[in-house]
Amino acid sequence: MSEQKRVLRRRMLDLRESLPPEEARRESLAVCERLVRHPAFREGETILFYFPFRKEVDVRPAMEEAWSSGKRVGLPKADPGTKSLSFFSIRRGEPLVAGAYGIPEPSGKASAKIPPGAIDLVVVPGVAFDGRGYRLGYGGGYYDRFFSRHSGPFRRIGVAYSFQVVPTVFPEAHDQPLDGLITPSRTFSF
Ligand SMILES: Nc1nc2c(c(=O)[nH]1)N(C=O)[C@@H](CNc1ccc(C(=O)N[C@@H](CCC(=O)O)C(=O)O)cc1)CN2
Ligand SMILES: Nc1ncnc2c1ncn2[C@@H]1O[C@H](COP(=O)(O)OP(=O)(O)OP(=O)(O)O)[C@@H](O)[C@H]1O
């Protein structure tokens, strides 16, 4: 993987770590307000989120809104062996279990598995994003693999703190672009 990506990832993770908690909270709330007003959210019946860890944008207020509006809420489960993701629906208050990387995940009951064809919207986490819809993640290639295997009909919308939008994330051939990006002050469509 490119050295440029590695350097950018390190720098962006350090910046995120030093983000004051009050600012992280305020920006996360502003992102959630925009997200729940987005047509893909309003019209979506099955929406995939992520469980925020290491100071990622906290999308839990938008998950609450999805449950309140009767939508199906899904979270990823990572398989580090195959570097693949599967998504399982979870109810409000349902306990999660620490998975690979220590991220809280659904327990993985087969009956809760969400078939990719039933997904309307994927809310995508990231370490940095550019103005063309490319994203930099933790380097596992999990979302890239998921999107290259399952290309739709769902929409892919990234969520970012303002500082996470950068001029370029040095995309490579395997990088799968997003359809949209939401920051505290802007909603981009690609
Ligand atoms: N909240 C959240 N959940 C998510 C993701 C995410 O980005 N955010 N993922 C999105 O993919 C998947 C998990 N992917 C991850 C990939 C790598 C590392 C990680 O800690 N990597 C180490 C390097 C480890 C190694 O290379 O062996 C590191 O960054 O220090 C964490 C999560 C599924 N769940
Ligand atoms: N569709 C794919 N099929 C096979 N390998 C892939 C695919 N997408 C990415 N990879 C591999 O995964 C590795 C990590 O990719 P990359 O650095 O772009 O991950 P990332 O976007 O930062 O991570 P993530 O998607 O997990 O947040 C790369 O070595 C890449 O070759």
Describe the structure.
It is a single chain. By secondary structure, the chain is α/β, with parallel strands linked by helices. The chain has a single domain, classed as Rossmann fold (3-Layer(aba) Sandwich), CATH 3.40.50. Helix content is 28%, strand content 21%. The protein has five helices and eleven strands; from the N terminus they run αααβαβββββββαβββ. The protein has helices spanning 3-17, 21-37, 39-43, 60-68, 142-149; strands at residues 46-48, 72-79, 84-89, 97-98, 104-105, 121-124, 128-129, 135-136, 155-159, 180-182, 187-189. Helix 2 packs parallel to helix 4 (60-68). Bound molecules: ligand FFO and adenosine-5'-triphosphate (ATP). Its cofactor is Mg(2+). Its EC number is 6.3.3.2. InterPro entries: FTHF_cligase (IPR002698), FTHF_cligase-like_sf (IPR024185), NagB/RpiA_transferase-like (IPR037171).
Question: What would the average pLDDT be, to the nearest integer?
Answer: 96
Which structural class do the helices and strands define? alpha/beta
Look up the CATH topology.
Answer: Rossmann fold
Summed up, the domain count is: 1
Q: Measured on Cα atoms, how large is the radius of gyration?
A: 15 Å
The top level CATH class name? Alpha Beta
Distinct small-molecule ligands in the complex: ligand FFO, adenosine-5'-triphosphate
Q: What is the N-to-C order of secondary-structure elements (H for helix, E for strand)?
A: HHHEHEEEEEEEHEEE
Low-pLDDT segments: none
Could you tell me the number of beta strands?
11
Helix content: 25-40%
Main pleated-sheet profile: 7 strands, mixed
Shape: globular
The appropriate CATH architecture is 3-Layer(aba) Sandwich
Family: Belongs to the 5-formyltetrahydrofolate cyclo-ligase family.
Catalytic activity: (6S)-5-formyl-5,6,7,8-tetrahydrofolate + ATP = (6R)-5,10-methenyltetrahydrofolate + ADP + phosphate
Organism: Planifilum fulgidum
Keywords: ATP-binding, Ligase, Magnesium, Metal-binding, Nucleotide-binding
